[in-house]
């Protein structure tokens, strides 16, 4: 049985009282991508589980976990898997999927045990599901691309949508990643909130000495978390989620909640940010 670290849901009034360490304890997820280990974190925001699997020479199997009270993690859940490492294989329900870096795999409810093998570094996001949607390996060329920002505002980027209603049907999970054009370092600015959905970000492809200053909090009460490579952050539904890197990076976003409408965002006016 794979252990899962719990993160409770924090309300905005409590959120603004937290100091740096307490903010990190609640929202920052470090220590992922340990060789030979499955690492999982269970957030009580929409019961999203996120984590990593790094097979490192021997296959690793994700099946029964603490905290879900089911025989298998995917008994009443769906999962998205992003490979940020070398070539690897993910197998479930009698199917084997060869995953290269940048590929996203969707496994529907009831997929059973999932085996991870090869040189992959796998990032996982799982949310409760209520029906079976077909499992599918999605290549970047099959994903939907949304170009945003400009060079002048240092936020020129491509949002690559994999688990999105136009690409792959899911129960509630949406997932993809955002890549930058050279010189652009700002993600999700101008920023937004969406009380209907929580979100998690995984920052990756950062240099060892590079950091992303990730901004969170109510728009009128912002805080920041300093993120290193391959660290994740849980974004409450009431929080902005935006970041600026000291160097280049990519980040994976995933959401769960009342709808899967990517455009359902409440944009925050610059003059309202504090
Ligand atoms: O609700 C959508 C999410 O916050 C992200 O997809 C935003 C993002 O990737 C970006 O603007 O760079
Ligand atoms: Zn968002």
Automatic annotation (TrEMBL):
Record note on cofactor: Binds 1 zinc ion per subunit.
Alphabetically sorted, this entry's keywords are:
Isomerase, Metal-binding, Zinc
Needed co-factor(s) = Zn(2+)
| Catalysed reactions, as listed in the record | 5-dehydro-4-deoxy-D-glucuronate = 3-deoxy-D-glycero-2,5-hexodiulosonate
Q: In which pathway does it act?
A: Glycan metabolism; pectin degradation; 2-dehydro-3-deoxy-D-gluconate from pectin: step 4/5
Pfam families the UniProt entry points to: KduI (PF04962)
Work out whether the entry's keyword set contains Plastid.
no
What is the enzyme's main class?
Answer: isomerase
Q: What is its EC number?
A: 5.3.1.17
Q: In which residues is Zn(2+) bound? A: 192, 194, 199, 241
InterPro entries the record matches: KduI, KduI/IolB_isomerase, KduI_N, RmlC-like_jellyroll, RmlC_Cupin_sf
Q: Which GO terms describe its molecular function?
A: 4-deoxy-L-threo-5-hexosulose-uronate ketol-isomerase activity
Matching entries from HAMAP family are given as: KduI
Q: What family, per the record?
A: Belongs to the KduI family.
**What role is this protein assigned?**
Catalyzes the isomerization of 5-dehydro-4-deoxy-D-glucuronate to 3-deoxy-D-glycero-2,5-hexodiulosonate.
Q: What is this protein called?
A: 4-deoxy-L-threo-5-hexosulose-uronate ketol-isomerase
**Organism lineage string:** Bacteria, Pseudomonadati, Pseudomonadota, Alphaproteobacteria, Rhodobacterales
Encoding gene, per UniProt annotation: kduI
